[in-house]
Amino acid sequence: MKKRYFRTAIATAVFLLFLMAFINPGGIFVAIGSLLEGFQIGPLLLKLLYSISLMALIQLVLLIILTLLFGRVYCSFLCPLGILQDIMSRIRKPFTVSYRSISPFIRYSILAVVIGSIILGTRALSVFTDPYANFGRIATAIFRNGYVFVRNSFVYILNFFNNYSIAAEQYSVVTLNSFFAVSTLFILLLVLAYRYRRLYCNILCPVGALLGLVSRFSLFKIRFSESCIHCKKCEQVCKSECIKITENSSFVDDERCIRCFNCGSVCPVDAVSLSHIKPLQIIKKKEREDADPVSRKEFITKGVFISLSIGALSTIPIRSLLKKGKIFPVLNNRSIIPPGAVSVERFIDSCIGCHLCTAACPTKILRPSTTEYGFRGILQPVIDYKNGFCEYTCISCSQVCPTDAIRPITVKDKQKVRIGNARLAPDECIVYKDSIACGACAEHCPTGALKMDKKEGLSYPAPAIDDQLCIGCGACEYVCPAAPKAFKIEPLSVHERRKTRDDKGVEIEVDETEFPF
Amino acid sequence: MNKIITRKEFIQKCMSISVISSAALHGLVPKDLFGSTSSTLVAVRGGEPDKLFDKGIKALGGMSNFVKKGQTVLIKPNIGWDKDPVSGANTNPLLVRRVAEHCINAGAKKVYVYDHSCNHWVGAYKNSGIEQAAKDGGAEVPHMQGARYFNKVKVPKGKTLKEVEVHSLVQEADVFINIPILKHHGGAKMTSAMKNLMGAVWDRSHYHRSGLHQCIADFCTYRVPDLNIIDAYTVMHSNGPRGYSKKDLVIKKMQLLSTDIVAADAASAAIIGFPLSQIHYIAHANNLGLGESDLNKVKSIKLAL
């Protein structure tokens, strides 16, 4: 009994913290979020492909060691999408299942195809299949927006009573394709969880397949003692439908078992336990009963060796392959990416598409992409200046990215990064077109790249842009009063550094003379 | 026929004259009854913004001349930009705090501080230091951001601006106090009292499209602030309204107070050193009868700390 409650308590806490990290990505939840995301397999692997991060390597090794010790506990305790399915299956009154035979080749093929697609240079499949990314998109589009709806309704009720102490929030942007992707997955999960509990994790999930492979070698596995009375109670509550009890045998599919301890909790004779068995080699079913336990020392040395080599292997060879394997070009290079993302190539290759940055963006200019990245990626965020502009002092997106697709940068760095160039279409500008004094663009320009200059033939000053100072923040585009806009930010596919102003050591002049009137 | 005035009549007349003139000073009688000379401009210099205000408001007879017991007050500073107080892009937070304190002391029921920021409001309110300063001064900073808190109103006397979405606080507050900061402005040449009121409307791009200067003047025919306090402590003389470097700033340690928004802007132009002819909205406002742009016709009280 105790084991199951231990699992439920930890999983509930993890799930709620994940939810908070997506609903309110600010303050303390940024730290909690990055701690949790630091232990997500998908983002870790993607991060290690593109950044040299000792921390990420250690985190990955720790997860592999955990799996080598106890099997797929990750799926029960740490995976937010897995926990979401557990919650979904609870909608239904306790129900029973029986052993289902699932060929492992389905999940192996999916894993192989996903890995292959990464090598071939597209992220479309990994973005679609990674459980953390899928959870992230559900959390942003459904849970966060649901929270905003409830919060704003509450705010408007308070407003009715002349209380303006709480601010309304902005919804996260949901595009048509992200709506379909998220709602389809959500319904699929709901149906699968309602009928079969964790079927998704054992058919479709590539992380599940990967961890399943590792957990074949795990030190502790679910085993039945002699006292088993073959009552089938454990088989009926198994989340993975992987326990098979017959009149004279008890069998667990170790690769599918997610170590949820449901079985141990219902056993009337305490015959189920997480037992120390012979690891590091595939044990034939018949031999299980008389398997020898290995020594602790042997286990630790072999375990550390295997996990280190997996960690190292996962980075080195694929990296060199990736550089050559750009068979999918970026179809549409008109996409603006946030400061810290360095280049479009790097960004789409290392982004897992979890949408945490879109939830964190205060002006909601980050939205899921549609066709911007072609076959190279899908649903990964892109900047759209329709709702606002990139605030000069904001680095929210770079602080939350779990894969470092948007590198963590400081406000000072951000103010120096050129992500695009402001481009003026004089035919649309009202100074040219209607001969009206404007200057809204120059007012909002944070770096002074845009100024109103006198131009021959015009009655009022017109915008003039200094590309070397323009950071592409989109303020001019957003505030331009013309319809259609006279300004458009032309993205830089590789970010640049802007020119700095030479005014160091300048002090503010003090002039305390009499009034001039 | 010579009419001899009795002592009683003399006293009565003296009394009534003094009552009427004091009433005029308190704004109880329409200004034009006495001609344009009734405009008073208080100019204070040589100290910190809060001290300047203490001295200036005293010269105007104290805040109780503007705020009566139980009234709601809207203070409208410039919180346009996500910049720190030193950068001179927003109204000095010390001043906002002091004005709020004076309103509370005068018996105001509620004092609100609001501006429709250009940058995202969370950053602008926080980094300008105004949110905290206003709260410290006893004012409320209501979370009324977004189009739903603005209402469309008619501007019958407006020449270009016929309709405008104005913030509900501007509609409802009993007393409207305008505290701009004096800056150069790329589009309007100068931003001070009248230009600051663009932060009370929702769709600013409409102003730009239809003629910035006339719209700025037209808005004042909808509601003119009951008191204008111009923060000219740190003056941004170039590259406004954001400013890029310390080169754009000069510390003048000045402040202007007036009920006449046009006179306040004319004096601002003199301080920043721009000719009135370049700031068209001042002339437009003068033509609309909103105040006096000729400083020679304005009663100036100049004070120094």
What's this model, at a glance?
The complex is a heterodimer of chains A (517) and B (305). Chain A is mainly alpha-helical.
Q: In what order do the strands lie side by side in the largest sheet of chain A?
A: 1-4
Q: Level of helix content of chain A?
A: 40-55%
How many strand elements of chain B? 11
Over all CA atoms, what is the radius of gyration of chain A?
28 Å
**SSE class of chain B:** alpha/beta
From the N-terminal CA to the C-terminal CA of chain B, the straight-line distance is 55 Å
Globally, the shape of chain A reads elongated
Unreliable residue stretches of chain B: 27-36
**Largest β sheet strand count, sense and barrel closure of chain A:** 2 strands, antiparallel
- What is the makeup of the main sheet of chain B? 9 strands, mixed
Polypeptide structure, described:
Chain A has 517 residues and is mainly alpha-helical. Chain A has two domains: 289 residues, no CATH class; 83 residues, Alpha-Beta Plaits (2-Layer Sandwich), CATH 3.30.70. Chain A has 22 helices and eleven strands. A two-stranded antiparallel sheet of chain A has the order 1-4. A two-stranded antiparallel ribbon of chain A has the order 2-3. Chain A has a two-stranded antiparallel sheet with strand order 5-6. In chain A, strand 8 and strand 9 form a beta hairpin. In chain A, helix 3 packs across helix 15 and helix 9 crosses helix 10. About 3% of the residues of chain A have low confidence. Chain B is 34% helix and 21% strand. Chain B starts with 6 loop residues before the first helix and ends with a strand. With 305 residues, chain B is of the alpha/beta class. Chain B is built from eleven helices and eleven strands. Chains A and B meet through helix 21 and strand 11 of A and helix 4, helix 8, strand 10 and helix 10 of B. Strand 11 of chain A pairs parallel with strand 10 of chain B.
